[in-house]
Amino acid sequence: NRKIILAERPKGAPDENTLKLETEAVPQPGKGEMLLRTVWLSLDPYMRGRMSDAKSYATPVEIGGVMTGQVVAEVMESDVAGFSKGDYVLSPSGWQDFFVSDGTQVLNLGPEPENPSWALGILGMPGYTAYAGLLKIGEPKPGETVVVAAASGPVGATVGQIAKIKGCRVVGVAGGAEKCAHVTDTLGFDACIDHRAEDFDEQLAAACPDGIDVYFENVGGKVLYGVLPLLNPFARMPVCGMVAWYNLQGLPEGPDHGPQILSTILRMKVKVQGFIIFDSFPIELYQEFSEAMTGWLKEGKVQYKEQVVEGLEAAPQGLYDLLEGRNFGKMVVKVG
Ligand code: NDP
Fold first, then answer.
1. Which ligand 1 atom minimizes the distance to the CA of 222?
2. Any idea where the domains of the chain sit in the sequence?
3. Mutate which of 243, 305, 319, 324 to test ligand 1's pocket (most atoms within 8 Å of Cβ)?
4. CATH of 2-121+304-334, one of 3.40.50.300, 3.90.180.10, 3.40.50.2300, 3.50.50.60
5. Does 122 contact ligand 1 (Cβ within 6 A)?
6. What are the φ and ψ backbone dihedral angles of 267, each rounded to 5 degrees?
7. Residue 253 confidence class, pLDDT cut points 50, 70, 90
8. What does the alpha-carbon distance between residue 18 and residue 137 come to, in Å, rounded to a whole number?
């Protein structure tokens, strides 16, 4: 069994000393347990948070512990009711080839799911994050302007496409011309601005002639600062993530934007609400999402792009790339 463990807590950006590959014997399932073999491992920005022991909503990975991660796995042998050899499952196995489970927090996807890896993306956590955060906190109305960054990634791409379905003007923000072209041409956003452009603020303002009604916050940093002056009265801001700041150690250099942020929230009466997808919404909403998204995918109303990383040993570099924007689409590792 190959597994990737947290060797040390990174200071700033993680590097080659952060995660290490180790090998051990394949674990053996006992009574009431099953053996799962990982097929797909999901890479997600939250994993940077699990490397840190700062106070958060989840416990960090221990030094020497297997990195946290959702996987799609195949059941190799099973003594758990409801799971048979050959079933595919969604499991919190972590970054490793094999995992012994008693079925806790494992979802059965059946023997032949059509696109098994989609359970880690558009039909799973990131897709649901976009759906719930946008519709329940963002509350977009037809004709309103919605802005979302990391627009080619699984959350941002889904936010924008749902907002289009709801009749909004949608402006994405992404890193580079290729991603921006994908966001407008394939995903159907009305505009997409490259956050690396020198005149980013001006370009964003030009793309939002009627201001911004919903800013779905994925990144923070200069995108947030460009958005603030454009927010309309009673704008909504679901705060989903701030990947631009995940590697910060302490406060950033430069001017203090605190007064600008809070005074905008006050003057424009902005609703700002953070959420963590697994405990912020009623459980019934997941079923609603699942049905809606399956339908949109079938009808071709939602497009989905994955980037496949080959092999468990390539997963650490994959995550570091993701945190720096060197991914294009939902990052998944093909493990077995
Ligand atoms: P992505 O696959 O989109 O990857 C992150 C992207 O962030 C990168 O590809 C990059 O895209 C962009 N990015 C990185 N640094 C910067 C920067 N300095 N400025 C602007 N953009 C940057 O991620 P996901 O779709 O999986 O997640 C998006 C966000 O949602 C993250 O913040 C994540 O933590 C959050 N999230 C929150 C959840 C919750 O429960 N609250 C659940 C799931 C996700 P580009 O090259 O286009 O800039």
1. 19
2. 2-121+304-334, 125-274
3. 243
4. 3.90.180.10
5. no
6. -65, -40
7. confident
8. 36
Task: Decide: 210 and 146 in contact? Cβ < 8 Å.
Answer: no
Lowest mean pLDDT among 20-24, 62-66, 245-249: 245-249
pLDDT score of 36: 98
- Whether 49 lines ligand 1, by a CB cut-off of 6 Å, is no
Q: Quote the pLDDT of residue 247.
A: 86
CA of 150 to the centre of ligand 1 (A): 5
Answer yes or no: is pLDDT of 263 > 90.
yes
Dist CA 40 CA 108 (whole Å) = 15
Q: Which residues contact 244 (CB under 8 A, 6 or more apart)?
A: 219, 220, 221, 222, 223
- Ligand 1, closest atom to CA 328? 9
Instruction: Write down the mean pLDDT value for the chain.
Output: 96
Listed residue (172, 142, 169, 177) closest to 156, CA to CA: 172
Ligand 1 neighbourhood includes 168 CB (under 6 angstroms): no
